[in-house]
């Protein structure tokens, strides 16, 4: 790894710059540039900042009311600078040479900057269950990173834990889970097990099959199997799901319910749901709103799923929630689990008489069935986000503006959240047509 030299000093220069400078109000990665002996190494994603809060000359974030984390970011960069200089000095003092194996030295710096433990000797596995167990441990320790080079989120790791339980049950039912058994027959048997034994719906089966394919691909890249779960016969099928949204009138009925007899359960769940239904944020981001950081009725939130920062408009109903909980430490209701909220919000929607009959089709245990259910049984935490996006769309807010709030990057994915009936779409067309006719009539010479 070294190139021996006889004399000379060993200067190293560490600087920080941004991956992108535009748009100025969207967080971008801060990269670390390490230069020595006419060599250049880049350590990506040491931190993140909005370009408008970055001093390019100093290579450091600026202090600003809108950049509350500037102190933490600055300290992280200073720590990285100190770490890199220490490792470089230790290396050249020991070897009296510049690092020659740049790839190995870059990996050493990256691991120390991000506090990633050194890899231990690679274990050997001959079956999917043992490999997946080790795979999850590596995820939990932060040794397996996402495509963006970041540790996996807890929700992602939870998906793999669920797969581990399913694979164990599949194995305990007498099925071979060795790597030698992986192939089309294994894939079809596992799909049948999820469908008939665990009685999962078609979309849940599809989700678990996608996870299986991802893990098998990982095992193949690690050299444990030659199995390839791709091609037409391994295609995952999804079915359309009947999702509902709550219109403004229904949300108002929920908001006006007197739930004071159950302040820690129903009332708290209702207030949390109201935040989600008026901001179109994901469940995990509802409590990231900080009322004290509201400027001109807007709060910026760093979203949990993507890490992107979005600007969220705060309407009067959400402000009322803020006022209601102004004495709490966060200015918000206390958190509850997604499962708890899903249970309570159905009860709340029923109390608000949201009982319009809805016909749904679904696959259960491999059979396609059609049932009619009251609307309140379909309300969940995700209904809040869908309601927020749909109501904004109905009001005529431009799609791009709504997508900036919801965090969607493609209009195709965004439109999946818009739950309008055929008649509502027809009315939207008429509204646009009527507005154009008015312009023509009023635009005389």
From TrEMBL:
<comment type="similarity">
    <text>Belongs to the 'phage' integrase family.</text>
</comment>
<keyword id="KW-0238">DNA-binding</keyword>
<dbReference type="InterPro" id="IPR010998">
    <property type="entry name" value="Integrase_recombinase_N"/>
</dbReference>
<dbReference type="GO" id="GO:0015074">
    <property type="term" value="P:DNA integration"/>
</dbReference>
<dbReference type="GO" id="GO:0003677">
    <property type="term" value="F:DNA binding"/>
</dbReference>
<feature type="domain" description="Tyr recombinase">
    <location>
        <begin position="241"/>
        <end position="431"/>
    </location>
</feature>
<dbReference type="GO" id="GO:0006310">
    <property type="term" value="P:DNA recombination"/>
</dbReference>
<dbReference type="InterPro" id="IPR050090">
    <property type="entry name" value="Tyrosine_recombinase_XerCD"/>
</dbReference>
<dbReference type="InterPro" id="IPR002104">
    <property type="entry name" value="Integrase_catalytic"/>
</dbReference>
<dbReference type="InterPro" id="IPR025269">
    <property type="entry name" value="SAM-like_dom"/>
</dbReference>
<dbReference type="Pfam" id="PF00589">
    <property type="entry name" value="Phage_integrase"/>
</dbReference>
<dbReference type="InterPro" id="IPR013762">
    <property type="entry name" value="Integrase-like_cat_sf"/>
</dbReference>
<keyword id="KW-0233">DNA recombination</keyword>
<dbReference type="InterPro" id="IPR011010">
    <property type="entry name" value="DNA_brk_join_enz"/>
</dbReference>
<protein>
    <submittedName>
        <fullName>Phage integrase SAM-like domain-containing protein</fullName>
    </submittedName>
</protein>
<dbReference type="Pfam" id="PF13102">
    <property type="entry name" value="Phage_int_SAM_5"/>
</dbReference>
């Amino acid at each position: 790894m070294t190139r021996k030299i006889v004399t000379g000093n060993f200067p190293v220069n560490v600087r920080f710059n941004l991956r992108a400078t535009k748009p100025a109000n969207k967080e971008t990665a801060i990269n670390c540039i390490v230069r020595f002996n006419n060599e250049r190494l880049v350590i990506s994603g040491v931190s993140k900042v909005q370009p408008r809060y970055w001093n390019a000359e100093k290579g450091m974030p600026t202090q600003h009311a809108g950049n509350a984390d500037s102190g933490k970011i600055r300290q992280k960069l200073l720590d990285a600078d100190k770490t890199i200089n220490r490792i470089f000095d230790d290396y050249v003092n020991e070897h009296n040479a510049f690092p020659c194996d740049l790839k190995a030295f870059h990996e050493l710096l990256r691991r120390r900057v991000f506090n990633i433990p050194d890899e231990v000797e690679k274990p050997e596995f001959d079956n999917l269950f043992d490999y997946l167990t080790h795979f999850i441990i590596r995820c939990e320790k932060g040794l397996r990173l996402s495509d963006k080079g970041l540790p996996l989120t807890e929700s992602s790791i939870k998906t793999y834990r669920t797969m581990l339980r399913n694979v164990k049950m599949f194995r305990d039912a007498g099925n071979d889970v060795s790597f030698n058994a992986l192939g089309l027959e294994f894939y079809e048997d596992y799909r049948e097990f999820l469908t008939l034994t665990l009685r999962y719906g078609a979309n849940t089966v599809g989700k678990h099959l996608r996870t299986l394919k991802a893990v098998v691909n990982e095992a193949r890249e690690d050299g444990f199997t030659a199995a390839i779960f791709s091609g037409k016969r391994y295609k995952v099928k999804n079915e359309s799901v009947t999702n509902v949204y709550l219109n403004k009138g229904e949300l108002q009925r929920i908001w006006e319910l007197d739930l004071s007899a159950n302040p820690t359960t129903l009332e708290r769940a209702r207030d949390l749901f109201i935040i989600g239904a008026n901001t179109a944020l994901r469940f995990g981001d509802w409590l990231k709103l900080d009322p004290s950081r509201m400027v001109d009725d807007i709060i910026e939130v760093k979203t949990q799923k993507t890490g992107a920062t979005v600007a969220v408009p705060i309407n009067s109903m959400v402000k009322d929630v803020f006022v209601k909980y102004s004495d709490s430490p966060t200015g918000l209701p206390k958190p509850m689990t997604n499962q708890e909220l899903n249970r309570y919000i159905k009860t709340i929607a029923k109390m608000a008489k949201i009982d319009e009959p809805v016909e749904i089709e679904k696959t259960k245990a491999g059979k396609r069935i059609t049932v009619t259910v009251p609307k309140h049984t379909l309300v969940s935490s995700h209904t809040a986000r869908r309601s927020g996006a749909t109501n904004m769309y109905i009001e005529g807010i431009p799609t791009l503006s709504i997508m900036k709030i919801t965090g969607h990057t493609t209009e195709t994915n965004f439109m999946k959240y818009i739950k309008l009936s055929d008649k509502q779409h027809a009315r939207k067309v008429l509204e646009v047509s009527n507005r154009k006719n008015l312009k023509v009539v009023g635009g005389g010479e």
